[in-house]
Amino acid sequence: xxxxxxxxxxxxxxxxxxxxxxxxxxxxxxxxxxxxxxxxxxxxxxxxxxxxxxxxxxxxxxxxxxxxxxxxxxxxxxxxxxxxxxxxxxx
Length: 91
What we know:
Layout: E1 4-6, E2 11-16, E3 19-29, E4 32-40, H1 49-63, E5 67-70, H2 73-81, H3 83-86
Parallel strand pairs: 4-5
Antiparallel strand pairs: 1-2, 2-3, 3-4
């Protein structure tokens, strides 16, 4: 699945079969990214799309050496489930 990062809109998005999904974020400080919202159209739910968006966003945070906050409840639970993998970048 192709995921696009749109830095101007502060989001990661994907479109599949005409359905859209997004992971929005904010940058409250130069070295911090806060994942604020996840949305997956009904037609894509249950297919791991949100997990893929989460992985893309967290990979970006690692690449850019950003500390991660998770205001989004989905992202908070994703990071909690994969804590060992992302503990080093959590704010």
